[in-house]
């Protein structure tokens, strides 16, 4: 039987590999989830797949698990990045959580002309990605980059990576996602939308395809989930 509790750890995993827990992990497993010695926990670290492990030491602030057998090979989502302009904290957290569940390989918060938020807590966002991966049964945790200026990112853009530029001025028009495989990025703007200069620049890039997300203007967090759904069902691992 597979363990119900899943935990992301930083250590290597392998046959009979002991894994020492951090204080927070011990608190979660033994304080919150009420596990004790002999209980099973599924572990993953983003590299070695998922391993079934047994609790061999359970303390208030520490503990040790030992890997028994691999229960999932390591998998990676398709080569899809999500670029989004951070919004209010709770909605930014939501975007990172949903992008992890939806299978983005890399998440890049971008500062656009109309982005309200000047900074993001990259470590906190990464913690959200780990939690989302624990919850959704995946073995992969997307990298969450630091806030990056959209200008700078586009200046160094690899032309092989296509951009699904979600352009709110196309709402209601036809702007389908091209069915072209390969590395992609989705770009979602802030509450204020994209500036004219940004829109001009993106329209001039060969790698960028302006797409519509339907007839209604979506909030940025909804738009992120909608675009990820569209991409995964057209080009990704839902097909
Ligand atoms: N304030 C803007 C809307 C911004 S919505 C306005 O009223 O026009 C936030 C982001 O979600 C947009 O920048 C875009 O990337 C995406 N988005 C929302 N609805 C969309 C739609 N129907 N088509 C394409 N992109 C959309």
Characterize this entry briefly.
By secondary structure, the protein is α/β, with parallel strands linked by helices.
Description:
The chain has 239 residues and is an alpha/beta fold. The chain has two domains: 6-72, Ribosomal Protein L25, Chain P (Beta Barrel); 80-234, Alpha/beta knot, CATH 3.40.1280. 28% of the residues lie in helices and 25% in strands. It has six helices and twelve strands. The strands form two sheets. Strands 6, 7, 8, 9, 10, 11 and 12 form a seven-stranded parallel β-sheet that branches. A five-stranded mixed β-sheet has the order 1-3-4-5-2. Strand 6, helix 2 and strand 7 (106-111) form a beta-alpha-beta unit. Helix 2 packs parallel to helix 6. The relative contact order is 0.15. S-adenosyl-L-homocysteine is lined by residues 166-168, 170-171, 188-189, 191-194, 212-214, 216-218, 220, 223.
CATH architecture of the largest domain: 3-Layer(aba) Sandwich
Radius of gyration: 20 Å
Tally the helices: what do you get?
6
Name the average pLDDT. 96
Sketch the topology as an H/E string, one letter per element.
Answer: EEHEEEEHEHEEHEEHEH
> By helix and strand content, what is the structural category?
alpha/beta
The name of the CATH superfamily of the largest domain reads SPOUT methyltransferase, trefoil knot domain
What distance separates the N and C termini? 29 Å
Bound molecules: S-adenosyl-L-homocysteine
Strand content: 25-35%
Largest sheet report: 7 strands, parallel
Tell me the total number of β-strands.
12
CATH class membership of the largest domain: Alpha Beta
Please name the CATH topology of the largest domain: Alpha/beta knot
Low-confidence stretches: none
């Amino acid at each position: 039987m597979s363990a119900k509790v899943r935990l992301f750890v930083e250590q290597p995993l392998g046959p009979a590999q002991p894994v020492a827990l951090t204080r927070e992990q011990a608190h979660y497993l033994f304080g919150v989830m009420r596990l004790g010695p002999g209980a099973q926990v599924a572990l993953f670290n983003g590299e070695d797949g998922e391993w079934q492990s047994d609790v061999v030491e359970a303390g208030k602030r520490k503990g040790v698990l030992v890997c028994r057998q691999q229960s999932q090979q390591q998998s990676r989502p398709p080569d899809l990045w999500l670029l989004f302009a951070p919004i209010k904290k709770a909605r930014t957290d939501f975007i990172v959580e949903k992008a992890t569940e939806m299978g983005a390989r890399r998440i890049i918060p971008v500062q656009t002309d109309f982005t309200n938020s000047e900074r993001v807590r990259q470590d906190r966002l990464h913690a959200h990605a780990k939690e989302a991966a624990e919850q959704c049964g995946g073995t992969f945790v997307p990298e969450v980059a630091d806030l990056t200026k959209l200008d700078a990112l586009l200046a160094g853009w690899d032309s092989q990576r296509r951009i699904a530029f979600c352009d709110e001025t196309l709402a209601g028009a036809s702007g389908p996602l091209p069915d072209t495989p390969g590395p992609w990025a989705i770009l979602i703007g802030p509450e204020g939308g994209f500036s004219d200069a940004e829109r001009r620049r993106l329209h001039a890039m060969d790698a960028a395809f302006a797409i519509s997300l339907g007839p209604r203007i979506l909030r940025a967090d909804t738009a992120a989930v909608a675009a990820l759904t569209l991409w995964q069902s057209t080009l990704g691992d839902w097909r």
